[in-house]
Amino acid sequence: MNIIQAPELAEFARLLAVERFQALGPHIHDSFRHAAAILQQVAQTPVAGFSLMGRDRQWFRSALGPDMIETDRNLTFCTYAIELDTPFIVRNASLDPIFENHPLLQCEPKIEAYFGISIRDADNQRLGALCVCDFHPRPMDQAISDVAMRLKAMLESLLATQAATGAKAVKVAPDAAA
Known about the structure:
Elements: H1 6-22, H2 26-43, E1 47-53, E2 57-64, E3 70-72, H3 78-81, E4 88-90, E5 113-120, E6 126-134, H4 142-165
Helix pairs in contact: 2-4
């Protein structure tokens, strides 16, 4: 008899939530792309995005900066961010004991600074992380954290509204709007 342990069951529920997110309309995904762009502008970083965390992979649903589509989950900074309720900040990855030998520091461009915050759905499942990265060590100040927390609240509220109303994206033809 196979008994599913509580952590395995929780991860299964989280992965189902990730699948539901992927099925949402384009207006939801646009909101995440806009949130990443706002955070990137405030943080003044070359990289920003929202990534979904699968079982073994991380997929970038919105990415600003170098071409990023997906990566192994065990290679990501976002893996740490989704486990927290507060921002996950790495100011200098080369000096951080967790990341000093990380593969992302062995290739160019190196990810040296990271700021990420988990995004949850209406059922409190951790979907992924809204994040910014830089290729140089740097501080991530309180203004970045404040804006990220507001963006997190906005995106999570949007997901809750979507879940409560079951709203679907409706495309209106330009002539029909007049």
